[in-house]
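re: the backbone from monday

yeah here it is again, tokenized this time
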């Protein structure tokens, strides 16, 4: 079994990167709230498991009848939705906890469905938008940002060009390896001045928000194949 190192860093700094540690902690009786504030080691998920990756690959080849603009409009409709004082209560966490994908990621990461209800939810938000718009086969679904990015990379749809509707992965310290990823959202546009306009969940004060981010914090982009 891998050794897990917990480093005390505020949840809102780390956001979704802490998800793997949260699920692991739940499985072994560690305080979930404390684990949610910490970062798993960068090798927490060395690779997406062959079983779940094969299922995801099959879905990736499925065409969708939704455009990038439609996905972004729907994501924008969620701006202002907030978590509760316990870090949960969002529709994104509730949906993910009950989803088929939760069973697969529990098999990969350990834990149980209840652990997702108060876990960092930026990747769950992206996944939920995909589900609700019918774009999930192209957007993918995961609760762990690193695994989500690896899925795009495994399907040769991960790169360094900002495109509207792309799934953008961040590392706050400027790291450029997939294992450095800590947060995820949607690209609205490249502002042409070294920044991006984005829509993200689990940001700011635990809300869905429109943000402006420096491109220096971007690890890479996942590219769904939208209609049109």
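seq for it, each position gets an aa:
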């Amino acid at each position: 079994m891998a050794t897990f190192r917990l480093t005390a860093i505020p949840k809102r700094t780390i956001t979704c990167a802490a998800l793997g540690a949260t699920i692991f902690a739940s499985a072994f009786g560690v305080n979930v709230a404390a684990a949610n504030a910490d970062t798993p080691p960068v090798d927490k998920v060395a690779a997406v498991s062959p079983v779940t990756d094969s299922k995801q690959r099959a879905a990736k080849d499925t065409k969708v009848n939704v455009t990038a603009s439609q996905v972004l409009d729907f994501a924008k409709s969620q701006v202002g939705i907030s978590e509760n004082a316990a870090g949960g209560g969002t529709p994104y966490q509730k949906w993910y906890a009950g989803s088929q994908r939760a069973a697969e990621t529990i098999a990969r990461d350990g834990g149980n469905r209840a652990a997702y209800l108060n876990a960092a939810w930026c990747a769950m938000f992206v996944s939920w938008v995909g589900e609700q718009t019918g774009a999930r086969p192209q957007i993918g679904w995961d609760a762990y940002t690193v695994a989500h990015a690896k899925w795009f990379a495994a399907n040769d749809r991960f790169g360094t060009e900002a495109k509207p509707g792309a799934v953008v992965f961040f590392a706050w310290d400027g790291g450029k390896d997939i294992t450095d990823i800590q947060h995820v959202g949607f690209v609205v546009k490249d502002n042409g001045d070294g920044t991006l306009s984005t829509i993200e969940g689990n940001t700011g004060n635990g809300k869905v928000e429109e943000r402006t981010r420096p491109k220096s914090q971007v690890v890479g982009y996942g590219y769904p194949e939208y209609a049109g």
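The first strand starts at residue 158 and ends at 159. Residues 11-222 form a domain with the endopeptidase fold (from Nostoc punctiforme) fold (CATH 3.90.1720.10).
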